Known about the structure:
Structural class: alpha+beta
Strand order of the largest sheet: 2-5-1-6
Order of helices and strands: HEHHHEEEEEHHH
Radius of gyration: 21 Å
Number of strands: 6
Strand content: 15-25%
Helix content: 40-55%
Amino acid sequence: MRIDRFLAIVSLSVVLCLLFALFWLNIKAFAKHTNLLLKEEVIRFHILANSDTTEDQLIKEHVRDAVIGHMEPILSKASSVEESRELLNENMNLMKEISEDVIKLWGKDYAINIELADTPFPTKKYDNVVFPTGIYEACRILIGEANGQNWWCVMYPPLCYLDVATGVVPLKENELKENLTDEQYEIIAFQQEKPYKIGFKLLEWFEGMLE
C-alpha cells in the first residue's frame, strides 16, 4: 500500500514537472517570437552608473537628462531605424562630450564609454507600452566602472523623452503606430491586446521567480 502511494506521488510529481516545463517553454517561445518581431525596428537606450552610491546615481540621471535633451531634436529627424542608427553613430562624440561635461561639473574623472551594441533586456513597461525580454540593439553609456544600477528607455521609436517636471517617460502612441507594423504595435500596446497582456504578465512573473 505504501509502495502504491509512493509511486502515485512520484508519478504525479513527474507529470507536474512536465507540465511546468511545457508551460515554461511556451512562455519562452512567446518571448522569443515577440522579441524577434520587434528587435529589428527598435533601438534602446541604456545608461550604467559608476556605482550605487547616491552621488553616482544622481550623476547617471544628470548624464541621462543632458544626453536625451541634446539628442531629442536630432533623432526627431529619423524616419526609420536605419536613419536613427546613422544619427547615433554620427553623434557618438557629441554624446561623449556631453557626458564628460556633466562628470566634470560633479568634480569626477570617470571615463565615459559609448557604444551601439546588442544588449540583453528584461521585460520592461513604459506607461501602457511593454517590450518583451530579449536581445535588442542599444546605445549604451557606461560611466566609470559601470557597476551601478542602470536606466533604460527606447530611443527609436522615441519613448525616451522625459517630462522634466515629473520624470515620467511620456507615451507617443502616434509615433509608435507610424513606425511599427500593426502586429508589432499590437504586441507592445499593453492595455489593448489581452492575449499579449496575459503573456507578458506570466513572463514577468517567471522572471521574478528566477531573480
